[in-house]
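Can't paste images in this forum, so I'm doing it all in text. The chain is below; anyone willing to post the predicted C-alpha cells underneath?
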Amino acid sequence: MNTISLKVPQTLAIRLEQAARQRGISKSAVIRDALEGYLQAETVVNPASALSRAADLAGVLSGPEDLSVNPDYLRNFGR
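Text version of the structure:
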C-alpha cells in the first residue's frame, strides 16, 4: 500500500478521530472509505447529451425560426 500524508484543519482532524472511534476502525480506513466513495461518485456521472450541454444557448440567436419556410433560403441548396 502507498503512503500519502496530508494536512487537515484541526476541526476536520477532530471529526475524523470521532468517526474512526465510532466505527471502530483506523483514521486511515475512514479516509480510504471516504476517498473511494468520492471517486466512485465522480466516475458514475453520466455524460451529458449535446442538447443538455447547449440548452442555455437555445433562443439566443435572432432570425427566422425555421429556414425551410422561406424558399429564398433554400435557393442553390445542395449545388
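The chain is about 50% helix and 0% strand. The two ends are 65 Å apart (CA to CA).
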